[in-house]
TrEMBL record:
Domain of life: Bacteria
Organism from which the protein derives: Stutzerimonas nosocomialis
Gene3D superfamilies cross-referenced by the UniProt entry: Vaccinia Virus protein VP39
Methyltransferase domain: residues covered: 53-122
Record-linked InterPro entries: Methyltransf_25, SAM-dependent_MTases_sf
Protein name per the record: Methyltransferase domain-containing protein
Amino acid sequence: MRSVERRFLLEYYQRDAAGWVDPRSLNAVRRRSGRSLWIGSYYALIEQLDYQPSVIVDPDAEALAVAKTQVRGVPVVQADVRRLPFRNSFDTILMPGCVTAYLLDDRALHQATDSLARALKPTPGAVLLVDGYDLLSIFDCCYFDDDRDVRLFGQRWRLEARCEPVSREPCLFDVALRFVCQDHPRQAPVQTTFRQRAYEPSELWQALSDEGLHCSEVRRDPRAGRFSLIFSPASPGSVDDRHGPAS
């Protein structure tokens, strides 16, 4: 993806995409004390929640440059979720914005779940929140299949979003976004395409349960084609929940 396309995606995430994330699960964990890690580039959510993480992680240098200006005073680390440079470091890890969509195969998924489990403190009360695109509803909602007006870089743009299924197992789909400037019709449109992955929630809770984490909540949001899961370190003698989360 070229630099101009990345800048448009980052601006779009800050201006519009935060509205697609259900804040209820985030509100349930953000008030916890201790050190917290934020993974991903939905920085507008941090402002919306009035939240101050201890560290922000993203693999993209341009995204971290945005974080430095938008969430001042918080250290940023350039790292991939599959190879987080932390061990037993955080009481809370928040990974909203469907970062899991970039884990396109099971090897990448298990690398990420291993990395997340190592970064989380193995203590009672530690919490990990992850979310993902829901394979039961992502193709029925309008998130990746809609035309809508957005305001980016102080100008009016028409966003044309389309998605095309690629495979069923794993559930992969290609996304095409086309931004057309309404204020300057002669300006060339900005277009980008990328591949994403959707999940059945059980795929994520099984992968994280295999790393010794216990799922305490699953929340589905068909309107946005997403779900979220909350995990904590499993205590000795706790019920094995690899076949389903506690509700």
